[in-house]
Every structure is written in structure tokens, then in C-alpha cells.
Known about the structure:
Elements (H helix, E strand, L loop, with lengths): L2 H8 L4 H9 L3 E3 L2 E2 L13 E3 L2 E2 L7 E6 L28 E3 L7 E7 L2 H8 L7 E7 L7 H7 L14 E6 L2 E6 L6 H8 L4 E9 L2 E2 L9 E3 L2 H13 L1
Parallel strand pairs: 7-11
Antiparallel strand pairs: 1-2, 1-3, 3-4, 5-7, 5-13, 6-7, 8-10, 8-11, 9-10, 11-12
Helix pairs in contact: 1-2
Amino acid sequence: MRLDKYVSNSTDHSRVQVKRLIKAGAIKVNDNDCSNTSENITAGDLVTLHGELVGRPGPRYFMLNKPQGYVCATRDGLNPTVLDLLDEPRLGELQVAGRLDLDTTGLVLITDDGKWNHAVTSPKRRCQKIYHVTTSREISADSGAKFAEGLWLDGEKSITLPATLETIYSNECRVGLSEGRYHQVKRMFAAIGNHVENLHRESVGAIALGSDLEEGCYRVLTQIEIDSILSAGDSA
């Protein structure tokens, strides 16, 4: 990859700005001054900008603990987006892999890898999501059976896929879904005569939101977590 393209892809600087930085001597390759903007950068080369290492462009994978009041979109005219919580270059290239509602909290996955995003969100991959649910009314004893059988939701042409429901308290439970229809958890509880007061996503596949990640914070996914999405889909 050309040096100017490598640095612009890895930072917030435009190609024009990078060329100026190269001419000013701010960019070095393998600790050597470099004035050639088209110099070819290979896998073993180390590129620095003002003495700081410039990471190789490549797929990025993050988990975010989403607070209420943020939308899972790249841009929104009314509300802040989850991307506003990230301090990363090239935010415009990132995508939300599986959205949460404005008032829903918890695990959000963000990436610029379209194939990986598809593996998270495609119903055919059956990537299970676990939600902690608090309802306004007591959860009836037959709710788990109804979720397992599938429910008809208003406006839908097919019954929901089997879902799990594990009761924690009289009005608290964990729900596991392997699809992601619009407002699905809320609509499923509405279909059985209950109302969701609070909704929090705890995990997506084998990727779990740990208690050490505070609300509004994010971290890079481990390679094991990244690989778990594709391996789960391959075995489904």
C-alpha cells in the first residue's frame, strides 16, 4: 500500500494532509526519514507519525456498553449516536452490528467488517442474543412455553423463532433470541399481555458484556471473541 494511503486510512488525516506531513518530515518508515509519498508499505514496515506508531489499516471490532438515549446509527438528526461514544479514527467506516432501541441498554457490537456484521445479524446464522428484562406485571407461569412455541406479532407474516425465557424474579427474566425483529422483545411481551419496563442486552453469541465495562465505555474485542461469531455460524 502507498505510504500516503496507509497513513490516511489509519488516521483522521486526509491524503492531502498526509502528503504535507510527509514533506515536513513528520512521518518516518522504519525510523528513517521518508519524503516519497508513494513509497510502498509492506507487512513488516513500521510507520510513525510525530514519533507515534501508526497502526496497520484493517478490520476493527469493538464492544460498547450502551446507555439510554443513544441511537444505534451512524448519524441521527435528533439524538446522539453510539459512534459519538467512540474515540477512534475513521468513524464513518464503522457499522453497528445488531441495533438496540433508544431506551435499551447493554452490549452493542461495532465493526467495519461487513462480513462479520452479517454473521452477527443474519437470521440464518441464528446468533443468540440474551436480554435481561424487567416487566411492569408479574411474568405468568406459561410465558416460557409461549416463547418457546413462537408468537404471532402484529404486522408480521411469520411466527417468531423459538425463544428461551428464564424467570429470575416475579417481574424479571432473561430472554434468548436467535433473530432480531423490530422491537422484538417488547412486542413479544405485549403479545402475552405484559409490558417491558427495562431492557438490557447481556450477550451476543459467546460475547458477553462484563461487569468491568462501565456504561458508555467500550473496548476492542479479543481475537477469541471475534472468531466466536464465525465459528458459531459455521456450526449452526
